[in-house]
């Protein structure tokens, strides 16, 4: 976008200022990169920071399973998941309902697991 200014019979076009360089790309895995190795943080807060951006599986009090990327939490243990999918019963072979961004109230959380990729079979290395 350019600024136009008219002075007398001349029209001057001012170039926009150059864009400010981005020093570091956006990362979803942490919300406080300067605090990752901060020794003053409690072990629980350090663990929560490591979980940011990872896939969580949450079982809620009505039996549903919610799976999505962990975005944030608060003092009441409410959890926000992005790209969340809902499963009505535990197990495989069912179609999930895609929900998008979800806030799960902490009072309804029964269990919480981090979904890890399945390790490679150890029989391949024998």
TrEMBL record:
SUPFAM superfamilies, per database record: Sm-like ribonucleoproteins (SSF50182)
Composition bias type Polar residues, residue spans: 1-12
Residue numbers spanned by region Disordered: 1-22
Record-linked SMART domains: Sm
Top-rank taxon: Eukaryota
Any one GO molecular-function label of the UniProt entry: RNA binding
GO CC annotation: NatC complex
Domain Sm: 43-118
CDD domains on file: LSMD1 (cd06168)
Family classification: Belongs to the snRNP Sm proteins family.
PANTHER family (alphabetical): N-ALPHA-ACETYLTRANSFERASE 38, NATC AUXILIARY SUBUNIT, SMALL NUCLEAR RIBONUCLEOPROTEIN-ASSOCIATED PROTEIN B AND N
Protein name from the UniProt record: Sm domain-containing protein
UniProt source species: Drosophila willistoni
């Amino acid at each position: 976008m350019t600024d136009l200014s008219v002075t007398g019979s001349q029209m001057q076009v001012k170039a926009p200022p150059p864009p400010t360089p981005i020093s570091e790309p956006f990362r979803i895995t942490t919300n406080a990169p300067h605090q990752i190795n901060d020794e003053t943080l409690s072990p629980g807060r350090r663990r929560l920071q490591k979980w940011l951006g990872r896939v969580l599986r949450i079982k809620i009090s009505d039996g549903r399973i919610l799976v999505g990327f962990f975005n944030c939490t608060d003092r009441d243990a409410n959890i926000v998941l992005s790209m969340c999918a809902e499963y009505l019963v535990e197990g495989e072979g069912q179609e999930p309902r895609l929900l998008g961004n979800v806030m799960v109230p902490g009072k309804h959380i029964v269990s919480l697991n981090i979904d890890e990729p399945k390790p490679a079979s150890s029989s391949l290395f024998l």
